[in-house]
């Protein structure tokens, strides 16, 4: 456990720094182009998310699910996996170059897919942004390929810390944009080619620097890369079979996201739309990234080793311990963000009224945070056994529910059941519902495969955490009201919103820990030991 603890702290500290600088990056970006009811911001968001969508296929789909376990296995080869990794990198680079070239040619059609409800002028602006943003595809892929290999070789830190440099580059670039062209440029007719180049070019430059920086840590893997186009005989066909299911799974997710984006884009210029959803998701992912990825990533590497060695009992133990540990932190994070939803949303909006609108979207996303954390462990347990087929089917069900609930939300607006301004929140709530159903089905399937998961023990632990989180969340909400509520100082500006959210979150945490101590939760001592590792001088 000490190795996992140290790795978790290293990843967690890097993730915290990365996410905090990412928050500042988004604050500067929102100052430049707005968020709620900003057609320019929605145009940029669609264009800048295109490379991110492909990155999701590369990272979440193929690399994390398939490549890490395969590199762990290849490490047992006489050459330590060096030949395998060289062939893998050669193949990956070729695929990335071809994919990026195709995406650049297809830019107008790609934007049209996601922004079909944009006005012609807004669509043209988004396409112009896309030409500047799509080169990110290659560098996102390179970053993911190098980073996941570092993780598989137990070099956990650089992959998490490199995005900080990306954020710093973006903060400086967006600041230069504001100095040159002004702020709150929300109308499409305010933009010219130079402005588009500065904003889009800054976003891409940050990704380039991030990827190049990661290459400097490659020596720690002990692998000397060389181009190798002889891809036969090292199990790449096996990887292809595994990746085929993951590829289909992530494609299904992207198609579901495509439906969501098109429906929500109908509210662009009239309320919360794609930019608000993206920013709410950024807040939502803050605790997920800090807690789930920092703790779960080292567990996944260990879990893969145990699964490869056929030690099923240890795998079952890994599953239970990781869910209980993740749950202890993710439950309080859910309560804290929910209580501070309005001040937290004020960070990414330009008025208190807009913050209230954005907070409703955030709250609807938060319903799915705990299920998503549990799913992280369950899904990657299937991956550790080289089973990407089963996750495809329970994810396909989730995607179908996402599409169905998004279409239902759009129909509800058309029928006058909900207002256009509530559309994004309704779509977010539908996604959370789909995640809840998905994790229930996934857990049942894993229980059928492995047995002995002791679901009751970690479900009881999650219930204990939730019991402590209820009074903690209420204390946080009361603190928000005492600080003036939606008309108080916590929503006066972005920085006060951040301060208010921190104060509210601190209150929630203190009350949560106090109640867990009263309940004598055994997981509290484990959490205390993990937190102590973050203190200066602790290891």
UniProtKB/TrEMBL annotation:
Q: Where in the cell is it found?
A: Cell membrane
Q: Quick one: a GO biological-process term for this protein?
A: peptidoglycan biosynthetic process
Q: Name one GO cellular component term.
A: plasma membrane
Q: How does it sit in the membrane?
A: Multi-pass membrane protein
Single GO MF descriptor: lipid-linked peptidoglycan transporter activity
Among CDD domains, the record links this protein to: MATE_MurJ_like
Subcellular location, principal? membrane
- Record-annotated membrane-spanning stretches: 7-34, 54-76, 88-111, 123-146, 158-181, 193-218, 239-261, 281-301, 322-344, 356-378, 390-413, 419-446, 458-483, 495-519
Which keywords belong to this entry?
Answer: Cell membrane, Cell shape, Membrane, Peptidoglycan synthesis, Transmembrane, Transmembrane helix
The protein's matches in Pfam families, at most eight in alphabetical order, are given as: MurJ (PF03023)
Q: What NCBIfam families would the database entry show?
A: murJ_mviN
- The name this protein carries in UniProt is Murein biosynthesis integral membrane protein MurJ
Source species: Microbacterium allomyrinae
What gene is this protein a product of? Answer: murJ
